[in-house]
Design goal:
This protein has about 270 residues and is of the alpha/beta class. The protein has one domain: TIM Barrel, CATH 3.20.20. It contains 11 helices and 12 strands. The strands form 3 sheets. The protein has an 8-stranded parallel β-sheet with strand order 1-2-5-6-7-8-9-12. The protein has a two-stranded antiparallel ribbon with strand order 3-4. The protein starts with about 20 loop residues before the first strand and ends with a helix.
Length: about 270
């Protein structure tokens, strides 16, 4: 099946694996800005096991040196797995070194500003370069999508370019299950197109209203039961609960509601 894929030239390893409960700290960014240690303690007490950072600047994570931040996370019984970093050609090596010091397994570029197909082709080549540098530090590099990458340009879906022209040996994808749905696509179709490429997910639900805002997992319309059954085919090793904006509940309550639902359903 992999040999016939339009995007892959290698055979992914579909080993069944139970992923730990993960949270990207962007969801609780305001709380982290006020008191990162207290917030990490609360996140751990809710039941999250691994976290993804979303605040790296001037060589520090949430104002802490990389190793200090990692130790802070671990002091509450959690593991620091991943980070969203605005990596580019100017800060590539420094970022890779700092992320290695933090003990990260993954680094994801959270967005890009492509408006032409050539821009996406250029980005794909840059991602390959980034991936090679991060791999030397035993870190996987990848890209996190929003909806815009699925909006056709001249009849071509830009996200398909990123999949096709990045080397799966050095570049993986962090699939945001909300944003791909927002763009009008189903995650499982992309699992078939590019099996094994989606090593990390962002998991948040979508309200069944005209605006289709983000909501807590279980309070929306996304078919997580079907998606999680396909985690092996997707290549998923970690997932992180995320909610960009918590409209109905405070963030710490929101992430508890989501995790409670995940536990109840056995995802």
């Amino acid at each position: 099946m992999a040999a016939g894929s339009m995007f892959m030239s290698f055979t992914p390893n579909f080993m069944a694996k139970s992923a730990p409960f993960g949270l990207i700290l962007y969801t609780v960014r305001d709380e982290m800005a006020k008191d990162p240690l207290k917030t990490l303690e609360k996140v751990a007490s809710i039941g999250y096991e691994v976290v993804e950072a979303a605040d790296y600047s001037s060589g520090k994570f949430y104002g802490m040196k990389p190793s200090e931040f990692r130790k802070s996370v671990e002091s509450f019984g959690m593991k620091l797995i991943s980070s969203h970093n605005g990596v580019d050609v100017t800060n590539l090596q420094k970022t890779a070194d700092d992320c290695a010091e933090a003990g990260l397994k993954y680094v994801f570029k959270p967005s890009m500003n492509g408006t032409t197909l050539d821009a996406y082709k250029k980005a794909a080549q840059e991602f390959n370069t980034f991936g090679e540098v991060f791999n030397k530090n035993n870190i996987r590099f990848g890209f996190h999508n929003h909806a815009v990458e699925f909006l056709p340009i001249d009849g071509i879906i830009p996200y398909d370019i990123l999949l096709r022209e990045t080397d799966p040996e050095v570049v993986c994808m962090q699939l945001d299950l909300y944003w791909i749905k927002k763009a009008g696509f189903d995650a499982w179709d992309y699992f078939d197109k590019a099996p094994g490429r989606f090593e990390v997910w962002h998991v948040k639900d979508m309200k069944a209203d005209g605006e289709q805002y983000e909501t807590e997992i279980g309070n929306g319309i996304i078919n997580f039961e079907k998606i999680f059954k396909l985690q092996e085919r997707s290549g998923m090793k970690y997932y992180f609960v995320e909610q960009d904006h918590c409209r109905d509940y405070p963030p710490l309550e929101s992430i508890k509601i989501s995790l409670d639902h995940i536990r109840e359903k056995g995802y």
